[in-house]
Specification:
479 residues, mainly alpha, globular
Length: 479
């Protein structure tokens, strides 16, 4: 039997069990918890990195891009966010290399590599001299380090989500997966709190004199903790049982070609939904402080305060939302959030730019609610789009290509559009468009809550075949 037949559920394919055994032994429960913790801490560090870059963008523009215009001008800020976007352009390369590697040698080994590279490259940014010290070498080195971060991140999130999902019980995958995104919010919130506190204590002048370096340097000890945790993790039974046979290993390019040939619709579904995920995440949690301070003329500390409140509230409800998706299914929750972004993004941004603190928090709260409804489920939804043998490749490649085009460019695109049009509602229109694209993608998803990830078929793809064979679907899922 060919690997294609097996993975696509064709004639002679081995059918996946509808559910995995949900009564875990104490050792299995401990392993699952360690897997979630090891995945989440790396994810937290990745988003801590992205967060501090976003919150410190004002200072980075004045230290590394002073050749472009007056100190902290619009062009310097656009170049700063363009440098942010450069790292995303490299992410697909990381996905193409690290995704197939994770399918061949294992998820755990790749996750150890990614956390080392992300930690070292982020800490190195904190050691860079400014443009005034070494000239154009400063922004060039910054760009190179961001590229290294991007390459490593190309394998980090996909690997962490897959590692978690393959260890989690089928009926609690949404619950377990929400902790991965809890780590995302924890990293972003820690970045916001740290940068805001520093700016409040030392002021803008103190930040420019050197305190901006501290958040970047803190990534190194955090990375050491994550490395220690990940080195003691083991592969899941799902991967061990269903990974490709030794004779079926592929090169990175071969895996990409095979993926696009055999699973084009799965890649396209993921691609479209990730547009919404990334536009929403980066605009709401990374770009918004800059939008509030530069477009709406708020102080750096004031512009961050509201967002910190929203992030902490999101952390409080993300696990209940993940557990809810196990009960009602992923699709109803994702459809509701997609419609919410489509309809309410512009009104939410109108509230944000009124000047009232209460209205601002309400506007951010609306966007935060729809965002947390999405991110609480993505770690359990997206890995289930692919069979085990190509799960890392499919997730990493599809996710990172979409992220490179629409996620990393969201901040610079909105900055440029506002500068060109003078319309401060641009982020609302941008989010609404992403919401519509995300809705179209979600409507094509199969419901996979409660479905097993084992058997090397796309979860849910063999339901009709099972019903015809007289089997019954198990679990509280939408048929």
């Amino acid at each position: 039997m060919s690997s294609d037949q097996s993975s696509r559920g064709g004639p002679g394919a081995t059918l996946a069990p509808l559910t995995r055994e949900i009564d875990l032994t104490p050792i299995q429960r401990k392993t699952a918890r360690r897997s979630v913790a090891g995945s989440a801490i790396g994810n937290a560090i990745e988003w801590f990195d992205y967060g501090i870059y976003g919150y410190l963008a004002i200072y980075v523009s004045q230290l590394f891009f002073t050749f472009s215009d007056d100190q902290g001008g619009a062009l310097a800020l656009i170049l700063t966010f363009a440098t942010f976007a450069v790292s995303f352009l490299v992410r697909p390369l990381g996905g193409i290399v690290l995704g197939p590697l994770g399918d061949r040698i294992g998820r755990q080994k790749v996750l150890v590599f990614t956390i080392i590279m992300i930690s070292l490259s982020t800490a190195a940014i904190g050691l860079l001299p400014s443009f005034d010290s070494i000239g154009f070498a400063a922004p060039i080195l910054l760009i190179l380090l961001r590229m290294l971060q991007g390459f490593s991140a190309g394998g980090e999130y996909a690997g962490a989500a897959i590692f978690m999902s393959e260890h989690a019980p089928d009926d609690k995958r949404g619950f377990f997966g929400s902790f991965l995104e809890f780590g995302t919010l924890a990293g972003a919130s820690a970045a916001a709190i740290l940068c805001t506190t520093l700016a409040f204590i030392v002021g803008d002048d103190g930040m420019l004199e050197g305190w901006w370096r501290l958040p970047f340097l803190l990534t190194l000890p955090l990375g050491l903790v994550a490395l220690w945790m990940r080195r003691h993790l083991s592969e899941s039974e799902t991967f061990v049982d269903d990974a490709q046979e030794p004779g079926e290993k592929q090169t990175a390019i071969g895996a990409l070609v095979s993926l696009l040939k055999n699973y084009p619709m799965q890649v396209l579904k993921l691609f479209g939904f990730v547009i919404l995920i990334n536009v929403a995440f980066y605009l709401v949690l990374t770009y918004m402080p800059t939008y509030l301070s530069t477009t709406l003329d708020q102080s750096t500390a004031e512009s961050t305060f509201s967002l910190v409140v929203i992030q902490l509230l999101m952390m409080a409800v993300i696990v209940p939302f993940g557990a809810l998706s196990d009960r009602i299914g992923r699709k109803p929750q994702l459809i509701a959030a997609s419609i919410g972004f489509t309809v309410f993004s512009v009104p939410a941004v109108m509230l944000i730019q009124t000047g009232s603190l209460i209205a601002q928090i309400a506007g951010l709260g609306i966007l935060g609610l729809f965002l947390v409804m999405i991110i609480s489920t993505i770690s359990s939804t997206l890995p289930a789009l692919f069979p085990t043998a190509v799960r890392y490749s499919g997730f990493a490649i599809g996710y990172n290509i979409s992220t490179a085009i629409f996620g990393g460019t969201a901040a610079s695109a909105n900055t440029w559009l506002i500068d060109q049009t003078g319309n401060v509602l641009i982020p609302g229109f941008y989010l609404a468009g992403a919401g519509l694209i995300g809705l179209i993608s979600v409507l094509t998803f199969k419901e996979t809550a409660g479905r097993s990830l084992r058997g090397n078929v796309i979860p849910g793809s063999d339901d009709a075949e099972r019903v015809a064979a007289g089997e019954h679907l198990v679990g509280k899922v939408n048929k």
